[in-house]
């Protein structure tokens, strides 16, 4: 398992699940295993050295409900020695003050617990007011930024550029 990739996500409206499935479609099925944390929780995270984690931001910068329910369990996982690629979904127009905040919170937890974040994503092409998902320099997000509300036509192209970066970072 340690050389396989675990893709963990949760989805309320189906958008995060759809993006997770698109990512899975770009990666060899012999390498990737998908996990919906609403059904499985987060305990299997420890089985993987390489992780892709997908989270959406709700309302005013809140975690998606299934991630929120698993947050305490997630906070006890040791991410030391694990490479983690994040993708986040948010609405830059309707909730521009909190764009991708949940991804920023997840990034903070992963790094505090020893994980190494890989495959940041540039902020160019997005219009938002604030985000907890910005890198320290503020010129990129800590992971792939997806906006299915304002930019659904951009998703496939962004995934086609980002997934190869993730695979290179994972040495897979």
UniProtKB/TrEMBL annotation:
SUPFAM superfamilies: Flavoproteins. Low-potential electron donor to a number of redox enzymes. Belongs to the flavodoxin family. PANTHER family: FLAVODOXIN 2. Its cofactor is FMN. Keywords: Electron transport, Flavoprotein, FMN, Transport. InterPro entries: Flavodoxin, Flavodoxin/NO_synth, Flavodoxin_CS, Flavodoxin_lc, Flavoprotein-like_sf. One of its GO terms (molecular function) is FMN binding. This is Flavodoxin. Residues 5-167 form the Flavodoxin-like domain. The keyword Phosphoprotein does not apply. The keyword Transport applies.
